[in-house]
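Q: Hi! First time doing this. I have a protein sequence and I read that you can turn it into a structure. Is that right? Here it is:
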Amino acid sequence: MTVKVVEGDFLQGASAKYAIVVGRFNSFVVESLLEGALDALRRHGVAESQITVYRAPGAFEIPLLAQQVAVRTKPDAVIALGAVIRGGTPHFEYVAGECAKGLGQVSLQSGIPVAFGVLTVDSIEQAIERSGTKAGNKGAEAALSALEMVGLLQQVGE
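A: Yes, that's right. Below is the predicted 3D structure, encoded as structure tokens:
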């Protein structure tokens, strides 16, 4: 008897429809995340006509917009991008926590994968590192996660 292993890959998601929900706040970082996500999707065969970018004011608003996009447009995956940078007040914890929790709920309630590409960092330097310099581009990583999940979910039940 052989154990069946089901994994996603980056090829099956090329024909899928993707929604990218982007928080505008901290745009100097977020625009690099968006470029990374778009580049990753293009490199894996996703046509620009299959990608729609939606812009929310900030990270706190991303979950509601992602939920409405999921319900109204039925993409195969949502890619959430934003940046929450810690300051001197508890604001960071509220925004970062609610954004993460909200996006998890959107995914579970809609049945549509939501890739989490929202940076939650302690400093501007960390944000810059994670948006295309030393630590890679977390926007590209979120796009790859979305591609993989689309392919994986296509195989569930086969």
